[in-house]
Inverse folding.
């Protein structure tokens, strides 16, 4: 008697969670193209190869495991990303890749001899979704969908000057495979919020991504002795950057609760020396809202704050780069398919929004797409304590398997 | 006909200023025990060796150039530090070392045959006064004066985990010389403020160092997804650290102008990733005042701000280390000696305070000490545009030479 689907998934989940494990926690640290990322990629390769899939990498390190059921037919892609933030949870994208792998193995087995399949199957592990080591995030799916040039992506450097090309070649994960022709795309992910867990929803049917306006900001002051320079003579870039961090948080209070999220996650200071007034600070400041009106009003208010702070601290504040998108809907046909699967399986479900971006945010622009969520306890995300129950993980695998089966049999064609 | 003292000094000054020159500026970047620091040290060694001095390094990399005029007598030490902040001015400590070297060469020549000398002469280049690469600052003179243990200093690491021991050995500047016995100490430095330049003072007679209270602070929050986590759930270490930076600046306004200087020069954020709420921030926050009462009141106010911010942002704020000193006077005998020299030379002079610490701050606690300043145009310091006129540089060399001559002939014994 073999192991059940459930046991097989949980065994593999335990094995996958060991790569890049952070000592003393249940979390992981496996940023894009680091050694732990290489290890988990080779493990995934072995898992799917042993099930008869053929594994390729493309030039930006996306990993595709192909199973041809219908010679010459296009592929249903299903997957997410294995890379993580530093000291992050083990679920995030990794759950979606493994759920897709198990769904693909089961679907391939069940359809290999029935003749129902009209599509082929490909499991995908997108390169560098997180964007912590190399910017921008969602790099692999952005190149795949033509939103980012391959050359620009490969030339991107990390903080130590290592390029994406060098890092991928360093772990042996840069390939030359031609991307499979895409019929449709399916992704499952943990929610990264706590609404589903609190409302008893097992399967989230993702209907849209929040709008966002992201700014890379450079503050330019002037180096000075931080002890002896007169206070009124200083042009302190760190002080002005700090006022921006506080201003971004204060913006939230101008709108109804939950309508605006703001953050500064990254701040670099130069020269960052104990007795030197900083001459430069660079920060990444994000505004996010489900409402285009709120996002526009918050952006305008931020611009006013930037002017006020620049004048007060006699520094330059410059937007080096910005990237904005509106509330971004998923296709209704995909939502209907997912709803009918969840409903027929008796899984509590609801339409949900995603605040975070996902690789499906790119993929839905080039192919019919289904995006599913499972709950996350307390919504803990990008944190070693991220947690989803086994029951919810397994329910998500079941839903993914059935949606995948229907897609391979021609749904959303 | 040989070159004049003035031409000789300015030629050497030009040569010294080339080490670690920052392209496109008149500044330098030669942090402690980096390659440019090694180069300038070898150059100083050659300069003084060619004049008959014997050059040694001690175990913490302090460089001593000895000239024995009176066998067995103790030494008058004169010097400062050659290391710089990142992208700093070329004057700072380097001027004091070169002024001392020229003063020592001239004094040795003039006294070698007269029999007036009762002391020997040593030029000193203290290791790592700046503290930018390795903390704490004034490392070499702190070890020399017994305020810091040699073992602790050698084990200190930079941001890349390189120890002081490794860095010094890497540039071949760790020695085993026994420190010379000290009779007295003389240092000259640029002011790092603009009061002297604005008031027409050529020679500053340093009477005291401002008091200071320096804090290394750790803010502890919790990693979260910086997009999707609810704002009210966040415990953002960068936000709280930013409030501390602003609070430190705001403290200044509670006291009469010029009575309190505050700064945060260094801030490190973890994980410092674009879509992660920071779980930790570390900052160096300094308060400085000439008044003990102001310093105490500012310290109390800062503690209250820390409590308020910790409660508001639900983070931990912990003082990891602190270091405080009161207004710290120089000896009156040294001041009187310096005043009589400046007066007899017809150089405009006045008693001044130093806000910044210097190696003489350490040395005055173990030996009679004279600390001189020359003016700095606009007080620009720790900045590539730092500037002192040739006339002031040369006046400082003259004053240093005459004070040194008197010390070697027994003044302050």
């Amino acid at each position: 008697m073999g192991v059940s689907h459930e046991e097989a998934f949980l065994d593999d989940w335990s094995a996958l969670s060991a790569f890049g494990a952070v000592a003393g926690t249940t979390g992981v640290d496996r940023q894009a193209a680091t050694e732990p990322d290489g290890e988990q990629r080779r493990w995934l390769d072995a898992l799917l190869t042993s099930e008869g899939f053929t594994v390729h990498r493309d030039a930006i390190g996306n990993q595709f495991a192909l199973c041809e059921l219908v010679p010459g037919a296009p592929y249903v892609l299903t997957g997410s990303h294995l890379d993580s933030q530093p000291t992050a949870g083990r679920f995030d994208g990794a759950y979606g890749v493994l759920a897709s792998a198990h769904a693909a193995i089961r679907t391939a087995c069940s359809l290999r001899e029935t003749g129902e399949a009209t599509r082929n199957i490909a499991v995908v592990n997108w390169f560098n979704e997180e964007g912590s080591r190399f910017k921008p995030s969602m790099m692999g799916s952005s190149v795949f969908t033509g939103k980012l040039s391959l050359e620009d992506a490969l030339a991107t450097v990390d903080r130590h000057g290592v390029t994406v090309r060098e890092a991928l070649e360093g772990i042996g994960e840069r390939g030359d495979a031609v991307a499979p022709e895409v019929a449709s795309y399916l992704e499952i992910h943990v929610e990264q919020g706590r609404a589903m867990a609190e409302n008893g929803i097992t399967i989230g049917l993702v209907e849209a991504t929040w709008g966002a306006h992201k700014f890379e900001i450079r503050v330019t002051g002037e180096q000075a002795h931080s002890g002896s320079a007169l206070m009124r003579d200083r042009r302190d870039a760190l002080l002005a950057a700090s006022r921006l961090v506080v201003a971004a948080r204060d913006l939230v209070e101008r709108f109804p609760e939950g309508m605006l999220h703001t953050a500064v996650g990254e701040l670099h200071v130069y020269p960052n020396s104990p007795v030197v007034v900083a001459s430069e600070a660079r920060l990444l400041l994000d505004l996010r809202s489900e409402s285009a009106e709120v996002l526009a009003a918050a952006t305008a208010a931020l611009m006013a704050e930037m002017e006020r702070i620049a004048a007060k601290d006699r520094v330059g504040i410059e937007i080096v780069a910005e990237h904005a998108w509106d509330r971004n809907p998923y296709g209704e046909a995909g939502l209907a398919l997912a709803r009918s699967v969840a409903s027929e399986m008796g899984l509590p479900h609801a339409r949900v929004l995603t605040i975070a971006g996902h690789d499906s945010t790119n993929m839905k622009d080039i192919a019919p797409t289904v995006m599913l969520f499972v709950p996350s306890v307390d919504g803990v995300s990008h944190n070693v304590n991220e947690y989803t129950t086994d029951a919810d993980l397994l329910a998500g695998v079941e839903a993914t398997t059935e949606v995948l089966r229907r897609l391979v049999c021609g749904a959303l064609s």
Remarks:
- Chain A touches chain B through 71 residues (CB under 8 Å).
- Chain A has two domains: 5-210+328-408, 211-325.
- DSSP finds twelve helices and 15 strands in chain A.
- Chain A has a mean pLDDT of 96.
